[in-house]
Amino acid sequence: MATVAEKKILLCQPRGFCAGVERAVQIIDELVRRSGETVYVRKEVVHNRVVVDEFRRRGVIFVDDVEDAPESSLLVFSAHGIAPEVRARAEKRDQRTIDAVCPLVVKVHREVSRFVGEGYHVLLIGHAGHEEVDGTMGHAGGHVTLIQNEAEAESYQNTSGKALALVSQTTLAVSEVQRVIDVLQRRFPGIHLPAKSDICYATENRQVAVRAMAPSCDAILVIGSNNSSNSRSLRDAAGEGGRPAYLIDDPAMIQPVWLAGVTTLGVTAGASTPETLVADVIERVRQLDPAFVTVEPVGTGEPAMTFRPPRELAELLPPA
């Protein structure tokens, strides 16, 4: 650990926006700048208060469901994905829709549809009420059971008469998902798993990086909103070794007592957190304790990844 005279902030790499969030944010930014009309978004485009509030400031209207936006309006589906029946209701209202769903979530939707088509009953590891889970379950036509934790995995009884297949929410903690998988594989040895983990590459990379950084820290700030599943999972990963780990999405949330006795402070950010918020948090830490002079990046970046914008974006926008 650093001495008191060497107080420093370790800035975890990778952190912040993933390719799916970047794509969703760019879609709405393009529409706001170029469409010339009000942009409606079903649910929060990504689970980050700062991002959503900035779009509200620019005139974007966030609605709970398609019926809350006018007929024939311009409507964006959030990065978390939707059930097919949501799209069908929007079509009935003649709404011009643009899909900002993360391609990695679309991958899970396709897995579910394929498993159901092959005669499986699908077990989905995820959190009830999360928008991604609601959307994924909507692709299963009722042939799905949500498993939220190890206890539910232990108590689940397969009354479907079908073979079982397994998928997961993309933003969970890797260790959390693996514990549930271990229970299900023990109880149902023939359960069919996806060829590749459903956990988002960015979620996993950020968890691996913060676990590597944590032993060098006295405390860790995880920047992300509380309704962000990947940010909560990142906070849990940061605190696995017993060090204090705090989830914040506003620099004002930082309590001076959190910095008491801390000489090395770790900082990381969830996959839906803009880098501007990271800079604001560092500035606030320095206001509370000017001894935090040094900011030292730790870890390595992840390979650049980009997702192409949806075809309908170009179709709806005037020529640049």
Describe the structure.
The protein is α/β, with parallel strands linked by helices and 320 residues long. It has three domains: 4-17 and 201-299, 4-hydroxy-3-methylbut-2-enyl diphosphate reductase, catalytic domain (Cobalt-precorrin-4 Transmethylase, domain 1); 19-102, Rossmann fold; 104-187, 4-hydroxy-3-methylbut-2-enyl diphosphate reductase, catalytic domain (Cobalt-precorrin-4 Transmethylase, domain 1, 3-Layer(aba) Sandwich). 38% of the residues lie in helices and 18% in strands. It has a five-stranded parallel β-sheet with strand order 10-9-11-1-12, sandwiched between helices. It has a four-stranded parallel β-sheet with strand order 3-2-4-5, sandwiched between helices. It has a three-stranded parallel β-sheet with strand order 7-6-8, with helices on both faces. Helix 3 links the parallel strand 4 and strand 5 (96-99).
Strand-helix topology:
Elements: E1 8-13, H1 19-34, E2 39-42, H2 49-57, E3 61-63, E4 74-77, H3 84-92, E5 96-99, H4 103-117, E6 121-125, H5 131-137, E7 144-147, H6 150-155, E8 164-168, H7 174-187, H8 201-213, E9 219-223, H9 229-238, E10 245-248, H10 256-259, E11 264-269, H11 275-288, E12 294-299, H12 311-316
Parallel strand pairs: 1-11, 1-12, 2-3, 2-4, 4-5, 6-7, 6-8, 9-10, 9-11
Helix pairs in contact: 4-5, 8-9
